[in-house]
Amino acid sequence: MRIRISLLVVASLAVWALDLAGAQNKATAASNILGLENKWNAAYQRGDIATMDSLLADDFIITVEDGTTFSKAGYIAHNGDSTVHVKKSEMSDLRVRMHGSAAVVTGAYYEKGTTKGKPYEYRDRFTDVWMDINSKWQVIASHYSVPASQ
Fold first, then answer.
1. Per-residue model confidence (pLDDT) at position 117
2. Residue 127 lies in a domain
C-alpha cells in the first residue's frame, strides 16, 4: 500500500513539473514574440526593408484598414514608398496567446506621419499570427481594422 501511495505521489509530482515547464516555455515564447513585434514595428517606422523581409513568412498576407490585402512583396514595396514618412508608430494593449507552434498577438496601434506631404493619423486594432517555421518565428498574417468608436 505504501508503495502505491509513493508511486502516486511521484507520478503527481512529475505531472506537476511537466505542467510548470510547459507554462514557463509558453511564457518565454510569448516574451520572444513580443520582442519580435517590437522589432517589426521599429523596422517599419525606420523603413528597414531587410529586417521586415526576415520577419515576414514567404506567404505573408496583410489586410489593412480599407480591406486591401498585400502579399509580402506588396507590403514591402508599399513600405518602400519614399512619399510616406512615418513619424510615430506605437503599439499598446499587447496580448499574446500561444498555441503550440503558433502565436496570436492582439493590440492597439497608433501611427502618425505624412504621405505625399499631407499629414495622416491612424488608430487601429490589430491581430498578428506568428508561426514557428523551421525553428524561426515569422508572421504569417496580419489584420488591421479601425475600431467602431471612431
1. 93
2. yes
